[in-house]
Amino acid sequence: MAQENKAVRECAALRTLVPGERFCGCYLLKSASGATTGAGKPYLNLRLADRSGELPGKLWDYAGPVGPADAGRIVWVSGRVETYQNVTQASLDALRLAEETDEVDPSRLVPAAPYDAGQMLDYVERTLGKLADADYRAVCLAMLDRHRAAFSAIPGGKTMHHSFLHGLLMHTAKMMQAADTLSRLYSDVIDRSLLIAGVFLHDIGKVAEYRTTELGMISEYSAEGQLLGHLFLGAEEVGEVAREAGIPEEKRMLLQHLIASHHGRPEFGTIVTPRCAEAELLANLDMIDSRMEMYRKAFEETPAGTFSRQKIYGLNNGTIYRPAAQSESEAE
Amino acid sequence: MAQENKAVRECAALRTLVPGERFCGCYLLKSASGATTGAGKPYLNLRLADRSGELPGKLWDYAGPVGPADAGRIVWVSGRVETYQNVTQASLDALRLAEETDEVDPSRLVPAAPYDAGQMLDYVERTLGKLADADYRAVCLAMLDRHRAAFSAIPGGKTMHHSFLHGLLMHTAKMMQAADTLSRLYSDVIDRSLLIAGVFLHDIGKVAEYRTTELGMISEYSAEGQLLGHLFLGAEEVGEVAREAGIPEEKRMLLQHLIASHHGRPEFGTIVTPRCAEAELLANLDMIDSRMEMYRKAFEETPAGTFSRQKIYGLNNGTIYRPAAQSESEAE
Amino acid sequence: MAQENKAVRECAALRTLVPGERFCGCYLLKSASGATTGAGKPYLNLRLADRSGELPGKLWDYAGPVGPADAGRIVWVSGRVETYQNVTQASLDALRLAEETDEVDPSRLVPAAPYDAGQMLDYVERTLGKLADADYRAVCLAMLDRHRAAFSAIPGGKTMHHSFLHGLLMHTAKMMQAADTLSRLYSDVIDRSLLIAGVFLHDIGKVAEYRTTELGMISEYSAEGQLLGHLFLGAEEVGEVAREAGIPEEKRMLLQHLIASHHGRPEFGTIVTPRCAEAELLANLDMIDSRMEMYRKAFEETPAGTFSRQKIYGLNNGTIYRPAAQSESEAE
Amino acid sequence: MAQENKAVRECAALRTLVPGERFCGCYLLKSASGATTGAGKPYLNLRLADRSGELPGKLWDYAGPVGPADAGRIVWVSGRVETYQNVTQASLDALRLAEETDEVDPSRLVPAAPYDAGQMLDYVERTLGKLADADYRAVCLAMLDRHRAAFSAIPGGKTMHHSFLHGLLMHTAKMMQAADTLSRLYSDVIDRSLLIAGVFLHDIGKVAEYRTTELGMISEYSAEGQLLGHLFLGAEEVGEVAREAGIPEEKRMLLQHLIASHHGRPEFGTIVTPRCAEAELLANLDMIDSRMEMYRKAFEETPAGTFSRQKIYGLNNGTIYRPAAQSESEAE
Amino acid sequence: MAQENKAVRECAALRTLVPGERFCGCYLLKSASGATTGAGKPYLNLRLADRSGELPGKLWDYAGPVGPADAGRIVWVSGRVETYQNVTQASLDALRLAEETDEVDPSRLVPAAPYDAGQMLDYVERTLGKLADADYRAVCLAMLDRHRAAFSAIPGGKTMHHSFLHGLLMHTAKMMQAADTLSRLYSDVIDRSLLIAGVFLHDIGKVAEYRTTELGMISEYSAEGQLLGHLFLGAEEVGEVAREAGIPEEKRMLLQHLIASHHGRPEFGTIVTPRCAEAELLANLDMIDSRMEMYRKAFEETPAGTFSRQKIYGLNNGTIYRPAAQSESEAE
Amino acid sequence: MAQENKAVRECAALRTLVPGERFCGCYLLKSASGATTGAGKPYLNLRLADRSGELPGKLWDYAGPVGPADAGRIVWVSGRVETYQNVTQASLDALRLAEETDEVDPSRLVPAAPYDAGQMLDYVERTLGKLADADYRAVCLAMLDRHRAAFSAIPGGKTMHHSFLHGLLMHTAKMMQAADTLSRLYSDVIDRSLLIAGVFLHDIGKVAEYRTTELGMISEYSAEGQLLGHLFLGAEEVGEVAREAGIPEEKRMLLQHLIASHHGRPEFGTIVTPRCAEAELLANLDMIDSRMEMYRKAFEETPAGTFSRQKIYGLNNGTIYRPAAQSESEAE
C-alpha cells in the first residue's frame, strides 16, 4: 500500500511519518520490553514518543543494553515505518541512549508553553524588580533566586491546565499582567505590591510538590507534596525567607496568607479563606487564568460553531461552546 | 447640658446636629404616627432621616395633614434639637411635604456612588458606541435607549453591595474597564465585543426586578422580580430586542447565555452554568467587582491594622482584615 | 450448525432472526464503513437496527452509493443470517435507501409510547379546550397550534425516562390526569386552570431543546438547548404568546413562573424555586410521573420478587425492588 | 375612652373583646405569677388564651389557690376588659379551675382541623375496611384498633404543618384520597392496597413520638421520639403487629419499608431511601400534602395579589405568592 | 520450558504452583462451562480458586456431571500445571464435587481474620458475662445465644473492611477492647456497661442483612437488608429481646438508640444522630476500627516509604502513605 | 425584705451573696461607666464578676481614678448587697485596682480545668520523655521548652469546649492517655511514638492563635491566628524545630502532616486530609475528646433522665440525653 521512500527524515514529528518512510533522531522511550521470536531470537518491543504522539516499534535481534529500565529516557533511533495488521509501527535498525552531543530540544519531545520562556521570565523579573514596596520586593527576589530554574521550567499542573513546559511561568506571567491592571482599577482597596508579590508566590510551592521526568514533565507528586500540599509548602518557605529578610511581621503574615488562601474555598483545598482584599482578588485571578487556559486548550480540538466532544471537569463539568461568530477586528 | 444656639442650620446633616441647635430643611420622613398627650392634645411622633443617619422627633399640637401614609416621602421641617430621657430628638415647630421649589438633592438624603454618574454613563455609552461588532453594538445601544434613566440611577442591590444611587451604573462601568483589559490579555479565547456587551447587559434585568422609593433606593422586589428573577427578565428582553434588531441567531443566543449564566453556580441562582469563555470570564468579573466593593464599604468602618467587627456574608462569611502596612507609592 | 431455511421473512424483528434464515425489509442503518478484502475487492461493513436490537452485516462486492454518510437513515435490505466466528451477522445481497413507497412504520424501528398517540393528544386538547379560565385557555391553545406536530411526536428525554416516540405527550397527558384530581382535592389553594395550563406548558421548551433523527428520536441537544435550557426557552416563548394574546400581566407572569420553577430545586437546574401553590404542586407531579415511568421501564427487566440488576440514577441511585406479592383484584 | 357595657359575654373569643366589655367563661391559663402591690396586697398576674389569641390580666386581692403551677390548665374566669398604659387587659373578679360540668369544647381553645373529625375517621376506616388485600387490611385494622383515639385526635406536627387537633387524621385522610386516584393512574407499577396501607401507617409512630397537653396539643417530643424517631417507632410496631397477624414475610417487610423510607432523602431523616414504587409515591404524596397545607395556612395571613410577609422554611425557605387572578368557576 | 515434576502436591496454594507440577485437592470452583473441540469432543473449561488466587483449567473428554450450575461449590481435582500461549493453566485428569470426608478447611479457600476465632469469641463472651449491669448483660447474652454461630463466622462487610471469615467477630472484639479503656478514661460521662453492650450489638443486624455462600463469604444483601438495613434490623430485634427480658424501658430504648445511631451522620445512613455520650463514643470507635483495618489491609500491598497505588474510598478517598521510618522498640 | 447582716464575707462567690450581706475581696471588673445623679454628683456604674457569675453595682460620689478603661482588670472592692427595683446589686464603699499583695487566685475568678494542672503537665512531660523514638522525643521536648508556660495555662478554645484555664493541657493529656492504649491495640499500623508526638503537638499552634486576658482566658484571636490558623502555625513551627534538631526529613514531614491534617475534613478546616494511620487516629481521638468534654459540660446543667434544654452545636446540633439509669458499679 505504501511505496518505498529512500530519503531519511531526521527528527521528524512522529505523527507525520507514513508507512514506507525512513527516519532517525532522538525520541522519548515510553516503554520497552524484551521478547523472543518463535525461532528463539531475542527482540525488543518498544514505544517511541514525541510531542506529536506515539509510535510502537520493534528492534529485531536485540538483547540490550537498552531495556525496560530505560523507560522515560531519551534514545536515538533509526528505522523504517511499516504497517502490520493494520497498525503503523517502526521497524528499527539502531537504538542507543541519547548522548550530550545529540543536543535534544526538549520542546520537540514534550509540549511547551506557546510563549517564549525567556521573555516571560524577563517580564516577571522586571516587574518584581520594580515593586514599589521594598519589603515585598526583597522576598520575591530572594525566592526567585532560590528557584529560578525550576520556576521557569516546570508545568503548572499534572493534567488540568498548563500541563506543559514553562506552564507555571506562563500562568504566573499572565496573572501578573491581569493583577497589574486590576490593582489600579481597585486601588482604593488593593496594595499593588502585595498583590503582585502574591501572584508571583502563590504557586511557588509546586516546585517542591512535583517530581519531574528527565524532560521536565510531572511524573508524580512528591511525598511532601501529598502530605502537606503546595499551599503549605509555599507559605512555609516564604515565611522563612521573609524572616531572614527581616521584613515587618505584618507583611510576612500577609504574604503567607495570600498563599495559604489562594484556593478560595474549603472544598477546593484552601488552608484558610481569603480575609483581605488582595487575597480575594488573587484567588479570583487564579481561577480566571486557569479557566481561560482550559478554554484555549479545548479550542484546539473544538471547531468554531460546535461544542467540545467531552465534558471538561474544571469548566463546570460540562461541554463548552466555541462560537462561530467572529466580531470584526477592532477599529481603534 | 446643651446651651442655646440662636442660628438656624439649613439642610444640615442630621448626625451633626447637637442639642440646643435650631435647624430647617428637607429630610426623608421615615415614619410617622399620631398620638395624644395625657391632656388629650394630638401630636405627631416621627423619624427624620438623611444620608448621615436618623433623628426621632415630635410635633406638638398637630393633627395632620401629614401622617403615617406619608412615610417614605420627603418633608420640609423646622425645629430644635433637645435631649429627653438621654435620647436626642427634634422638637419641630413646622412640617409640610416637600414641594418642587424646594429643589432637594437626593444624594443629600440617601447614599450615592462615590463617582460622578454623568462621567460613568458617558464612559459606558462611548465604549458601547465603539464596539467593533455592529450586531452586539446595536443591541446594547437599543437596550440603553430603553433604560437609560433607570440604568444610570438605581442601586446595584438591596443590601449586599452597591446599595446606593447609581450603584448599578458604577458596578457596570468598573466591570467594563476590567473586561476591556482582560479581553486583550485573553484575546485567543475572548471576543471583546461579546464580553463587553455581556458586561453591559448582565444586570439590566434589575431595572424590572426592583421597586424603588421616591428617592431611588430599593424598597422591595417587584412580583416579576421575585417570580422570575433578573437573569430571566434581562435575557428575555435582550432576546426580544435582538430579534427586532435582526442580528444573527447565534449572537442573540450568546448574549442571552451570558446573562443567563452570570451567577456562575446553581447554588448562586444561575439559570445555566457558563459554557463559553466570555460567559465564564463575565461571571468571574462580576464576583470580583462585587467583592472589591464589599471591601471598599467595609474599609469605611475598619481602621487599618484591624479586623472588621462583623462577619461579612458575601466575603466568605468571615471578618476581613485591613492591613496597616502601606506600600510606598509606585515609582514609575 | 444452522440448517438452511428457504422462506424469506419480511420486516421481521432483528432479535428474532436466527442463523440460516433469509429476510428483507426496512431497517435503520446505524453505521456503515467501506473496506477491502485481501483480494482487493470492496465491500461494506454495516450495522442494522430496529426496536428489537441490532445486527452487524456485510455486503460483498459493493462500493456504493450507500456509505458512512447515510448512518441514521432507513434502508431496505435483503439477505441471509449466518454465524461467523461465533457472531451472528447478516450477509446481504441487496441494499438501498428506503423510499416513500416503502411505507415504513417508525414504531417498528424505534420504541414508542405504550399508549395511542392520537387518543392522548385528543385528551390533552379536549382538556385544554374546556379550561374554565379563558386567558390560560387561549395561551395553551395558541401554543398547541404552534407545536402540535412536534409536541405529540418527540420523546420526553434522551435517556432518563420517556425516551421513546410520543414520550413528551404521554408524560404531559399522565400529569394532566393527576393534576385534574389533585386540583380538586386541594381546591382551597389551587387554581385548576393555572395548574393544568402549567402541566401542558412545563416541558414545551423541549421542542426547541432537542434535535431529533429522521425517526424522531433525540440525537443531541440543540445549541440553544444547551446554552439556555428548556425551562428558559419555554418560559420565554410563553411570555411572547401571552403578550400577543393580551392576557393580564399577572397571569402571564404566573404561567412563566410555573415553567421556570418546575425543576423545584437549584441543584436540579430550576431557574427559580416554586413560590405559588400551583408551581409547587406542578414540580411534585413532574417528579412523580418521571419516577413512576422509571419504575415501569425497570419492571420490564426485573422479575417479580427481585431487585433490578443495576442501580438507577434517577431513583435515588439505588437498585429497585419489584414485589412478588400481588394483592387480589379490587372488589369494587 | 371605652364606654361601659353592662352585658356579660360568655365564652367570647378573646380577640373580639373590647375595652369596657364584661365577659366570663373557660379559657386556657397560659401563665400566672403572684405579686404584691405597693400597699402590700397580694394579686395575680396572668395570661388567658383561646384559639383567637391571648389576653393579659390581673386578679386583685388574690393569694391562691390557683397559681404558677396551673399554667397550661383550663380555668373559669369572669371580669372586665380595660386599657392600662395603652395595653388592653382583663381585670378579673373571679377565677377557678374548670370543672367537668363546665363542658369545655377544646376546639374553642386550641386550633382544630377545618374538617369534621368524625367524617374523616369514618372515611379512613371505610377505605381500610375495603382494601382488596386481606393481609394489608388486617394489619391496618389492627393498628387502628390499637390507636384509634390518639390517631384521630393528635396534631400532625409541632409547628411546621397540621399543628392543630385532628391534624394527623386530616393529613392521613387527604393523602389517602390522593393515593386512591394516583394508584389507579399508575396501576402498572402500584399495588393500591400496599400504597393505601402505607399512607395510613406512615405517621402512626407519631402517636408515640409526641407528648400532648391536656387539650391535645403537642407539648414536646417523648424521649423515645427523640432517641428513635417516629419512622423507627412506626415500622417497629407494624412489624410486631404483622407478625402477630401472620401475614407473609414479604408483605410485612414492604409495609415496614414504606414507613421507614417515607422521608425520602437522608438529609430529611429517612431511614432508607425508597426502593419500591409504592414507597416512592408515598414519599411524594407526603411532601405534596404537607406543602399544600402550608400554603393553606399561609393564605390565612396573605391577601390575594401579595407575597407572604415571612419566609416559610418548609416552602423552599422563601416568601410565597398568593395570586390575585381568580379563574372563573368551572363549567362542567 | 518447564521440566516435569513427578511428585503430587496436595492442597497446595494455587499461587505457588508452577508449570510442570502435579497437584490434587479441594478447591473452589469459580466457574465452569462446557465446550467442544474441533474434533467434536466435549470438554470443560473451568476456573479453580483458593485464598491465594485463581487458576484456569481444562478437563478433556468430559461431559459432566459437574457443570456451570456448580459454580461456587467446592470440588476435588487432580491434574497438572502447564503453559499454553503464555498463560499458566491446569490440565485436569479428575474432578468431582467435594464430599464430607474431604474435610475441607474453609480458611484455605477464602480469607479469614488474622486472629483465632475461638479466642476472640471467648473474650467477647467473658466480657459480656461480667458486665456490671444485669439488664444490659441479660440482653447481650440472649442475643449471643440467638446468633452465636453466625455472629462468630460471617465477614464484617462485603468489600470495604473486614471482608473475611470472622470479620464481624474481629471488628466487635477490637472495638470492645477500645471501649473498655476509653469508658474508664471518660467515666464521668460514660456508662461502661451500656457502651460495651452497644459495641456488641451495633452490627448484629448484619446477620440478617447478608446472604452468604457455602464458604461463608457474603454473596449479596438479603431483601430485608436492602429494604430496612442492619441498623433497623438490629435495633428491632434488640427491642424484642429486651422486652422479653423485662429490662426497664429506658435501658431498652438506650440500647436501641446506640444501634440506630451508630453510623453517626445522615449521609452515612444513620437512623438518628447520637444523642447520648455512649452513642457518640460508639460511632467514633466504629469509625476508628474500620479505618485502622483498612490501613492494615492496605499495608499488605504498600511497601514502607511509599503511597498506596490506588485511592481508598473509605480513607478520605485518597492514597495512603506507609512510613519508612520505624521507631525503635519501646523501652518500658 | 432582706435583714441586715453585720459580718463581712471575704472573697465570697458572687452567686452566693444575698441582699443585706456585706462583702469584700478581689473580683473581675467586667465593665464600668461614669454617670451623674440628678443632683449633679458623679458616681460609677459597674459590673463585678467571678467564676460563679456577675453582679451589677454602684459606687456613689466617685469620679475615679478607676474607670471604663479598666474593664477586664481585677479590682478590690468592699460593699453591701441590696435590692433595687427587683434587681440585686452591690452598693460599694471602696474600690481600687488589685495589687500584688492581694494574691488573687485566678481560678476563683475564671473557670479552670477539673484536674490539677501540675499533675497533668507532669504526666505529659514524663510520657514525652520516655518516647521510644529519639527523634520525635527531641522535637516534642524542644517544643515543650519553648511553650511550657502558655501550653499548660491557656484554655483549649474560646467557647466550644475546654474553654477554661489549663484547658489545652487537659485536652492534650486526656488524648495522650487514649492514644497510649489505642496505639497498642492497633500496633500493626500505628507507630506509638509518632502518634503520641502528634497528640502533644496537634494544638500547639493555639499558643499563637489566641490572645488572652490578664486572667488567662481567651479574649480574641490574634491576627496571625485568623489569617493562618493554628494548624498552619503549629506545623510551621514544628518544621523549624525539627530542622534545627536535625531529625530525618520523613519524620519531620510526618509530624507536620499530623498537625496539618488533624481537623480531618475540608469543611472542618483541615489543611490536608489524613493520609497515614497515625494522622487518621489522631483526628478521631481529637473528635472523641472534644465531644466527651462537651457532654461533661452539658451534664452540669442537665439532670439525669432529661434532655439538655439547648441544642449543642458541636454535638450534631441537637439536644443531648443524660440517662437516668445507672449501671451498678463494676465488680472487678
Descriptive report:
The structure is a homohexamer of 332-residue chains. Chain A has 332 residues and is of the alpha+beta class. Chain A has nine helices and ten strands. Chain A has helices at 106-109, 117-129, 134-153, 167-185, 192-201, 206-209, 223-245, 249-260, 277-299; strands at residues 8-10, 22-36, 42-50, 53-60, 74-84, 87-97, 210-212, 218-221, 306-307, 321-322. In chain A, strands 2-3-4-6-5 form a five-stranded mixed barrel. A two-stranded antiparallel ribbon of chain A has the order 7-8. In chain A, strands 9-10 form a two-stranded antiparallel sheet. In chain A, helix 3 runs parallel beside helix 5 and helix 3 (134-153) runs antiparallel to helix 7 (223-245). The mean pLDDT of chain A is 91.
Properties at a glance:
39% helix, 332 residues, homohexamer, alpha+beta, 9 helices, 10 strands, two-stranded antiparallel ribbon, five-stranded mixed barrel
C-alpha geometry of chain A: elongated
Class by SSE composition of chain A = alpha+beta
* Proportion of residues in β-strands of chain A: 15-25%
Helix content of chain A: 25-40%
* Overall pLDDT of chain A: 91
Order of helices and strands of chain A: EEEEEEHHHHHHEEHHHEE
Biggest interface: chains and residue counts?
A-B, 59 and 60 residues
